[in-house]
Amino acid sequence: MDFLRSIKSKQALEIILGFTWNPEIEIVGIDDGLNRVLAEDIISEEDIPPFSRSLVDGFAVKVRDTYGARETNPSFVNIKGEVKIGETTHLEIGDGESVRVSTGSMIPKGADGVVMQEYVRYLLDSIEITKTIHKGENICFQGDDFKKGDKILEKGKRLNYFDLGVLASIGRSDIKVYKRPTVGIISTGDEIIGINETPKPGQIRDINRYTLSGLFEKEDFTVIHAGIAKDNPEDILNKIKLIGDTDIVLLSGGSSKGDRDYIIESIKRLGGEIFFHGINIKPGKPTIFARLGDKPLFGLPGHPGSCIMVAIRFVLPILKKMEGERIKGTAGMISGTLTANVPSSVGVEECVDVIVERKKDGIFVTPVFAKSSVISSFTKSSGYIIVPEEKEGYERGEEVEVYFF
Question: How much is the pTM?
Answer without folding.
Answer: 0.87
